[in-house]
């Protein structure tokens, strides 16, 4: 069973990734939510080149990735679920839930610790918001996230299929909830109870730090609602809000070479613990809840 999973993993991942990216790209043309400010070719070329670079660096750095470690943990009896007797579906469901919580907490940490925010803000520096934004992460952030995920897998001992499912779903939802697509409002309202929608995650890409530091979930919207980081709509509406962060606002900043050096440039302002910038921004914006424009 685990050999089959490992053998099929690269194909499952690649087919799911390319299939969903193609669907989102078409959907963004058919029903866009916002007008584009930057030509697609500039952002897509650089964001997709970054994915190739990230994948190569990840594979060269770690001898084993999350699914492989789950298989190894099963063989050697490491971690919680390899030492307690629960039905496999319970182990799969609880593992996927806890992996999602871990990703949420890690995202909050990347906003809170100034040094980590320097890495993660590159994700926020994209000047438009579409499916490829969901792929735009600094290679060092990718390496740190994988280190954290491996630690969670070693401690939890989840079934390998749960880790594979979780990673494929996370990749798919990241493409979906960054997509520049116009979901009918009632559909968005309903979906928000079970999955992070593009309108929910777009708030997280607002230039206003109060909104940047909200809606940290990637898959499940529940953590934000339970733990008090949920903001329903942007104060200026989805069409009026500005995407990005205050730093890095030129087209040149969207190029791969500039993205890679962003962590070393300028102050680490705008993160969740940057009280000065949060205070200043929130007092300057309207206190009325944003209309869903
Ligand atoms: Zn973020
Ligand atoms: Zn995002």
Automatic annotation (TrEMBL):
Keywords: Membrane, Transmembrane, Transmembrane helix. Residues 283-293 have a biased composition (Low complexity). It is found in: Membrane. The keyword Zinc-finger does not apply. It comes from the Bacteria. One of its GO terms (molecular function) is iron ion binding. GO terms for cellular component: membrane. Residues 272-293 are annotated as: Disordered. It holds the Pfam family FA_hydroxylase. Residues 93-229 form the Fatty acid hydroxylase domain. GO terms for biological process: lipid biosynthetic process. The chain crosses the membrane at residues 12-30, 51-73, 88-113. This is Sterol desaturase/sphingolipid hydroxylase, fatty acid hydroxylase superfamily. It comes from Ruegeria halocynthiae.
């Amino acid at each position: 069973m685990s050999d089959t999973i490992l053998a099929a993993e690269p194909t499952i991942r690649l087919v799911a990734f390319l299939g969903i990216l193609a669907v989102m790209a078409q959907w963004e043309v058919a029903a866009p939510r916002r007008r584009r400010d930057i030509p697609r070719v500039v952002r897509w070329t650089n964001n997709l080149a970054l994915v190739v670079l990230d994948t190569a660096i990840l594979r060269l750095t770690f001898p084993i990735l999350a699914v492989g470690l789950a298989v190894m943990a099963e063989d050697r009896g490491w971690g919680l679920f390899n030492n307690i007797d629960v039905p496999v579906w319970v182990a799969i469901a609880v593992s996927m839930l806890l992996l999602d919580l871990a990703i949420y907490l890690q995202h909050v940490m990347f906003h809170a610790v100034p040094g980590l925010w320097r890495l993660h803000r590159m994700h926020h520096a994209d000047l438009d918001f579409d499916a490829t934004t969901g792929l735009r992460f600094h290679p060092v952030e990718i390496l740190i996230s994988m280190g954290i995920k491996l630690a969670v897998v070693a401690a939890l001992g989840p079934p390998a299929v749960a880790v594979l499912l979780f990673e494929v779903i996370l990749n798919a939802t990241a493409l979906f909830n960054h997509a520049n697509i116009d979901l009918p409002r009632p559909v968005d309202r309903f979906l928000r109870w079970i999955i992070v929608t593009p309108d929910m995650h777009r708030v997280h890409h607002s230039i206003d730090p109060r909104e940047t530091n909200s809606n940290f979930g990637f898959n499940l919207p529940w953590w934000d609602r339970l733990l008090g980081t949920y903001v329903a709509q942007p104060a200026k509406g989805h069409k009026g809000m500005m995407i990005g962060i205050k730093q890095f606002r030129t087209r040149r900043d969207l190029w791969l070479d500039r993205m890679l050096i962003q962590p070393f440039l300028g102050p680490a302002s705008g993160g969740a613990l940057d009280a000065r910038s949060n205070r200043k921004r929130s007092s300057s914006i309207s206190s009325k809840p944003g209309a869903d424009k």
